[in-house]
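Onboarding guide, step 5: your first structure request.
Type a short instruction followed by the sequence, for example:

Predict the 3D structure of this protein.
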Amino acid sequence: MIESRQEAESQAPSNRAIEFSDNTFVVDAALIGELLQVPATSVPVLMREGRITSACERGIGDDEGEFRLTFFHRNRRARLITDLAGRLLRRSAVDFGDRPMPDAVHRAGD
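The system replies with C-alpha cells like these:
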C-alpha cells in the first residue's frame, strides 16, 4: 500500500517512510516518488494503473529479519531495505537509461 503523508519536516524520512503491520508494508509515497522521480501525488495513481510495479522479498541467511521492497517505473528501479520495525536500512535508485527494462517488471500497457 502506498500513501502520502504530511508530517513535520524535522522528522527524518527513515523514521516515517515505512510501516509494517499485519504482514503489510505502508510506504510513504514521497519516498517512492523521490526515488522514481515522479510527484508523490502521482505514485498511488501510477500504481493503480500498473505503471509502477513492485516486489517484496524476505531476507534469509545473513539478511534474516530484513525485507527488500523494489519499485519499477519506466526505466528506473528503486530499492528499499527495511527491518521488521520498518526502519529504513538502505535505499537506492538506478536509472537504466535507454536500456529497456525486462517485460517481467512491467504490466501490459506500460
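Each response can be followed by summary notes, for example: The first strand starts at residue 2 and ends at 3.
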